[in-house]
Amino acid sequence: MTALPKAEWTQREDLARLVEALGPANLRWVGGAVRDTLLGNPVKDIDAATLLPPEEVIARLDKANIRSVPTGIDHGTVTAVLVGGPVEITTLRKDVSTDGRRATIAYSDDWREDAARRDFTINALYADPVTLELFDYFGGLDDLAEGRVRFIGDPRARIREDHLRILRYYRFQARFGATLDVEAEQACAELAPMLKGLSRERVGWELQTLLSIGDPTSTVVRMYQQGVLGEVLPETGDREIVEFEKLVQAESRFGVPPSAVRRLAALLPADERAAEQVAARLRLSSAQKKRLVCAARRDVLADDPHAMAYWLGREEAIDRLLLAGEDPSPVSDWDIPELPLKGGEIVARGVAAGPQVARILQAVERRWVAEGFPDRARVEMLLAEEIAGRPPS
Fold first, then answer.
1. How many other C-beta atoms lie within 10 A of the C-beta of residue 193?
2. Pairing of the two strands 27-30 and 125-127
3. Long-range contacts, 76-82 (Cβ 8 Å, 24+)
4. pTM of the model
5. Which of 223, 247, 333, 350 is deepest in the core (most CB within 10 A)?
6. Do the domains 1-146 and 152-298 sit in the same CATH topology, yes or no?
7. What's the sign of the alpha-carbon dihedral 263, 269, 221, 118?
8. Tens of pLDDT along 63-89?
9. pLDDT, tens digit, for every residue of 291-338?
10. Closest of 250, 211, 251 to residue 229, by C-alpha
11. Are 154 and 184 in contact, with CB atoms under 8 Å apart?
């Protein structure tokens, strides 16, 4: 018997309670937790497949005093809220019809049938919750050992069922792939135009997740060369690909964790308007949009990174420096100071409240930053000089 190695999560007491509540014969661990345990990687999320219909899952959890949330009840998914973290429990399914964006499903009592509707062989590995016996219906263990991301069955059929699987393929290839699957690559390139019909949120999430991987350079380059990247980021050209490669190298050289937004900026021309359009198209948050647009400007105060961090913000300055190939360490752990001056102090010195106060405050601030953030005594001197030199009110 081939079994899943014992890991910390497989011995959790709250999971044992869950198994007992649903019945060990009705449940198997599946997906990322199984895959990552086999690879020796940290396990973040735990998913389970079950023979029980969702209504029965909810009833049994209630009886065992385990809180449940019908997070995806239309698709057979119930989330059990446990002390050690939530577990998604999905009833075995088979696809009745698909249109590339959503599927109509029916429940099943066949484990292999459930596995057959999943995307990649390495994601279709199941483990018995008690014995940890592994169930591999499509050669996922061999693919995992060889570092190959392979679609289950005909890759074109899998992609036509869900067009997002094109981007998922490249994401998994960047994480786990050491060996390219030629058939998968050809199918993704051939069917890439189907990506245009997907929701922007789904595309944006997949793209950001891919760009957050340690070093996705070779994968992103292949996506570009195969015409896949152009379907979701038509702004990217040869120059941007080179900039992306340089950025990833700079992050590695200076020991800076990857940032999806920073890397996305590298894949775009140095154009604020283009960055704004991409942020809207990918449904980025307001904070992400602001950071992307800031990074797109590209200009760098390399001779005074502290000033840049003060005016733009720490993360924004790090983005700009890395995009320019500069060392961001001067600002990485620098505590950005606060100007030791308030508008009320200017009024107290005889300046009438109004626009003139703001102008003086801004002038002092600019000089204070330019002089390297001197102490309070110097700020008072700068204030005196600005007040003395102000035009009559």
1. 13
2. antiparallel
3. 76/105, 76/107, 78/54, 80/18, 82/12, 82/14, 82/15, 82/17, 82/18
4. 0.88
5. 223
6. no
7. positive
8. 999 999 998 877 899 999 999 999 999
9. 999 999 887 666 789 999 999 999 999 999 999 999 999 999 999 999
10. 211
11. no
Nearest to 85 by CA among 28, 15, 4, 7: 15
Greatest extent of the chain over all pairs of C-alpha atoms, in Å: 91
What are the angstrom distances between the C-alpha of 137 and each of 113, 121, 155, 206, 328? 10, 8, 16, 27, 49
Does the domain spanning 152-298 belong to CATH 1.10.3090.10? yes
Q: Tokens in use for 26?
A: 């009705």
DSSP bridge pairs for 105: 95
- For residue 94, list its beta bridge partners: 106
**CA pair distance 356, 393, nearest whole angstrom:** 8
For the chain, domain boundaries: 1-146, 152-298, 343-388
Please say whether the beta carbons of 171 and 213 come within 8 A: yes
Helices (H), 66-110: none
What type of residue sits at position 210? Answer: L
CATH superfamily of 1-146: Beta Polymerase, domain 2 (3.30.460.10)
Closest CA to 132 of 44, 7, 40: 7
